[in-house]
Design brief:
The complex is a heterodimer. By secondary structure, chain A is mostly helical. Helices cover about 80% and strands about 0% of the residues of chain A. Chain B is flat and about 75 Å long. The chains are: A mainly alpha, B mainly alpha. At the A-B interface, α1, α6, α7, α10 and α11 of A face α4, α5, α8 and α10 of B.
Amino acid sequence: MSGRWLAKRFGRALVTLWLLMSFTFVALHLSADPALQILGPEAGPEAIADFNRRWGLDRPYWEQYVRHLGRLAILDFGQSFRTSDPALDMVTARVPATLALMLPTAVLALALGIPLGVLAAIRRNTLVDRAAMTAAVVGYAIPNFLVGILLIYLFSVWLGWLQPSGIVDWRSWLMPVATMASAEAAVFARFARSATAEMLGHPMMRTALANGIPWPQAVREHALPNAAIPVVTVAGLFLGSLIGGGVITENVFAWPGLGRMLVDAVAARDYSVVQTIVLLIGVTMVVANLLVDLAYGWIDPRIRDQRR
Amino acid sequence: MSMAKPFDDRTALGRAGRLWRRWPPLVVAAAGVLTLLVFVALTAQWLRPYALDEQDLLNRYAPPVFMGGDWAHPLGTDGIGQDVLSLMLRAIQVSLSIAFLGTLIGAVGGTILGFAAAHFRGWVDGLVGVLVDFQASLPFIVLALALLAVMPDADMGTFVILMCIYGWERYARLARGLALAAQEQGYVVAQSALGSSPWRLYLRHILLNIAAVLVVNMSLNFPATILTETSLNFLGIGIEPPDTSLGVLMGQGRSHLYKAPWIALLPGAVIFVATFSMSILGDWLRDRLDATTR
């Protein structure tokens, strides 16, 4: 991996970060009058003027923009106008709950989806393949919130076994994790199947078999490592999106995480909180994308050579 | 694609077998369901038995006929006595229109940007690339929520715009890559040597050659568009009553899950049937039209 490629890749990540910060600025000014948006239509002219002064909205745009970037650079994300607490503290307080939900989901989705996809590819056009792929299409076509509601209907309303919302004990994890893992596992299964099937049909497999390498060994040592490359990409992007991926599920199960906080903040037009969450998720994704790209060169020598 | 066994045209069974292979029953069923949904979307305002804001306050939480209700409200009523069938018909209309218009406009806009990037290269290409990078840096739900936070009074139009933003980037990347590949090919080189204008070249020749791939992508992406729209509206920060969408209905219904489960479950079933049918049809279209995936 040459220094030039690295510099270019880091440059792109920085440009994306800058765009993210600019986006939060432009988005706030897209609405005709942020003060009216945030204070509500009953706000008097004095309240509006006061608000505009406090947020610096009476200054020229370029000055506001520079100040905006300056504040973000020193990690000053402003305050929630509802509670007057620093937005960053409020948001970071919610991160553990989200991670506690996402990590088991990620493990389960990868552990279910990838073996299922590989198995379907190896037993292509058999009953196993058909069943696995039908399950994957169904898992993909059912929206998360419908799965969540069906689970609540079954286990909370009908059977009365599980609490429908919040964190009470370990059983609170069952329904949200099942909801998200089923959807993600479906995506991984489809992806792992097509990646493996492509490699099984590759001429190198015929060469390996012609050289007398037994089929299981050829699959294990030649097809699967190559099929792993695109799967790693998708898995990497998925891990990056974990922190924001649970917005829907967290809301269905009233999970006290980031996703629920984001929706509440949007409904209340609490812009500092929205902005902080958006930036936090964005930075996580940019870093994850960067790491995936770096990992690519590490697992695939061909790409490493191209980057010289 | 695996080679089909030849079927004997002289027997009825053989003809049926061939038909079976060409039109798999699941695909035919999916196409039928989608035709029905499109018909509902086009005629909902005449089909619905009650006005959208009409309330039957003496008849709240009336169960649907299959749960012991009567035919005055075939799919029951909700917590304020609104007819669920009428709401559902409107919701299908709104959700399908958003998904269809959003997909279409996003595909056209994305394709134009992709062609522009491939044609001009240089800074235009760089700009499109940066925009694609930006969009990849946020899960779309989060980006949409950030936009909804500053857009007052979301309605159907707002969501059409959001769905364009959701989709354009995929078509831009595809169209750019395919156009770059096409520029190397004989027919494009010949056309430009003959003096075709770039417009003619891209619209008449390159577009027609890559249309299959774009259409397959639209059909594969359509279910995701419906899921995204309904998810956002499910959260209760999108389209405002009295207007509705399948997501809005489900979001309202979930607080009545104990008392009136049909309010949430019926629209949920429609969402599932629509996205599942479209996935089946999309996969089938891809296998038939897109030579690059097989």
